Amino acid sequence: MKRRQVAGHIVNINSILGHKYHGFPSLNIYGASKHAVTAITETLRNDVRNEGTRVKITSISPGVVRTEMVPDGDLFEDTPMLEAEDIAGAVLYALGTPAHVQVHEIIIKPVGEMA
User: Fold this and answer.
1) Within 13 A of 90's CA, how many CA atoms are on the CB side?
2) Residue 22 CB: number of other CB atoms within 10 A?
3) Among 13, 30, 107, 113, the one annotated catalytic
4) Is 93 a catalytic residue?
5) Residues 6+ away with beta carbon under 8 Å from 49
6) pTM for the full model?
7) 55: which strand partners?
8) What's the CATH code, domain 2-108?
């Protein structure tokens, strides 16, 4: 994008755990890796701005999404979850903004998910 001098958009899929620590024993390193994604995204945003490019950087941070990563069973039986299509919709929203608008962060959670 920089070499061709074109506007672009980079979307990082992060997690709510990249912004707030939750003490889930089975997800200990997952949260740490998502905090790293948050820091990397901010660094990238600063770098492209300092280079004078027209590249937008957006981070999408969902709560629990119904995927193969979420185990079946009683533990998550009553847990509100997003669907993959919800995250795709957030990506399309960010990509659909006017050229002068940069959506930095979208935190998306299902209604009723714990804080």
Assistant:
1) 23
2) 11
3) 30
4) no
5) none
6) 0.84
7) 8
8) 3.40.50.720
Pairing of strands 8-13, 55-62: parallel
Query: Token digits for 29?
Result: 């390193």
pLDDT in tens, 78-114: 778 899 999 999 999 999 999 999 999 999 999 987 7
Summarised one tens digit per residue, pLDDT across range 28-76 is 788 889 999 999 999 999 999 999 999 999 999 998 887 776 666 656 6
Chain segment 3-28, per-residue pLDDT in tens: 777 789 999 999 988 988 776 667 77
Token digits for 50? 């300092």
User: Alpha-carbon distance 69 to 87, whole Å?
Assistant: 15
Scanning the structure block, which residue is given the tokens 């770098």? 47
pLDDT of residue 42: 97
3-state secondary structure of 97: coil
